[in-house]
Amino acid sequence: MKLIRYPHLITEDRPACIATIGNFDGVHAGHREIIQHVIKYARQHKVSARVITFEPLPNEYFCKKFGKPAPKRIYPLRDKALHLQALGIDEFICLNFDTALAQMSAEDFITEVLIKQLKVKHLIVGDDFRFGKGRTGDFALLQSMGASLGMTVEDTNTIQFDDERISSSRIRDALSSGNISQATTLLGEPYRLSGRIRHGDKRGRTIGFPTLNLRLQENIVVARGVYAVKVTGLDDKTYTGVANLGTRPTVEGTELRLEAHVYAYQGDAYGKHACIELVHFIRPEQKFDNFDELFAQIKKDSLDAKQLLNTTTS
Which listed site, 18, 205, 260, 275, has its alpha carbon 20 to 30 Å from 102? Predict the structure, then answer.
């Protein structure tokens, strides 16, 4: 899969494509149905399957403009791209959401971006997709303008779970409260975060709990705390472990990290790209009065994680 961050800088003529467009924060079960339809249609017509999105997300742009806190993300951009690649998308195109794009009319967005720049021949969108200045663009406008510009358009029905629409906001609520089970159901797959293993403070190895360290973006929504986890990417095996996602307040940490102690792994993981699946939320992150208290809690967390993971796999 190609990740294209600035498509307006590409000068060569692009072939026609089948595409979908939206934020796709989380690539949840509803998104997956749309994406799978895009891929099936593209394969039938022997053209490229593309997902078109925005960076930053429009909500993030407008919140920053008006000095408001932006909704936190379900996944960093890299993890979103990995999920799209796994589904079979050919190109992941990120439009730079800046002042020019924010002020662009819905009509100009269709003609200048979708038709001229991205060569969309068939567009598949969710039934709630809105675009253009003032969010005036909708499915009806796409369909009416597309008919005269050589672009066909179809919408998709809302996907529901427990009589409610599957949405990114529901998944954010689940993740921020530590409800990993519900988040997994709404996402349609386990919740995972990935990244390159970096050197940490190496305090853990002095007490028999060495950890793999992933640095994360601060705007990730998942609850800060301790989790039972599964880890892949270290070799060809899947490992279990216990992890802390947070800033490590007991040692005056400031960076958001995911630190995982992996059971039964003895190799050198530095520099490898690991994928850490959050399986169970154990407790919120907390600050301890001293390192001895922290060490005692780490031992308890490790035992709790093993018990939860054994229950899950039994």
Answer: 18
